[in-house]
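agent> call fold_tool(seq_1)
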Amino acid sequence: MKLNRIHHIAIICSDYEKSKDFYIRILGLEPVGEVYRESRKSYKLDLAVNGLYQIELFSFEDPPERVSYPEAAGLRHLAFEVDDIEEAVEHLSREEVPTEEIREDPFTGKRYTFFPDPDGLPIELYESKARGKGSLMVHRKDSTTSS
């Protein structure tokens, strides 16, 4: 099997209008389609990141809370690449979205931070260019040798 790319990520929110505003107005994602499914009493909003459809935002009646802290098994967080992390953090601060301190990945030398969406889903911002002295190390098993 050959996987081409990640097609989309689905997010279930507890307050559809609040989350819709957060992802569109605060994060700047582009709505490309919205439908209300009467049989499920659920909205589905398709969102594009930089012109590429990637996120589906769903509403369901009384969804159970997602456990984020302490971290649990399963999907850990959603990450977006940004050109300037300080500019992005300043934007979030103006919108009263709390962020963690900016840190540097010791392996890549790139800076990153985390912040929550309206339901507490951890979102990471990862700067596109390295500033530090980190170096990405990838470990691969050599298929020509036996273990």
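agent> call fold_tool(seq_2)
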Amino acid sequence: MMATVKLSFSPAPVHVRTARLVGVAVARRAGVREDLLDEVRLAIGEACTRAVALHRQYGVPDPVYVEMSDSGAYTVRVVDHAPIEASIGLAALPPDELAKESLSEDALTTGVGFALLAGFVEDLQVRPVDEGVGTEVRMVWPVGRA
């Protein structure tokens, strides 16, 4: 049976832990291999932390949206509503230029987030949302159903 879990939370760092816990519980139930669950936890935490940081940096009061689905594979979508230029800009800087930048903690979190996510997730997509302003981070892991 396909399950979809939807979660939205105010952009506060305290809620990232809840998203991680729910994400791992849904992954386990979906059949993601036990040895991948740490990666799932870290990736969901990083994607949500990045979204919260962007919302806080740009004063966006809208909730961060997370959707977890096990239709064929375990898919997690994390959606923020920050300006797209903000969410991608720092990721485009070469590492030596990034090191020279005088960045706030939130700006650094959003800029480094993509590199960390790419290390945790083989199937990672980052794209603008279909409608409105924001970015969707989509992560997929295989499930091992018998």
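agent> summarizing second result for user.
The beta strands are 4-9, 64-69, 74-80, 123-128, 135-141. The two ends are 13 Å apart (CA to CA).
agent> awaiting next instruction.
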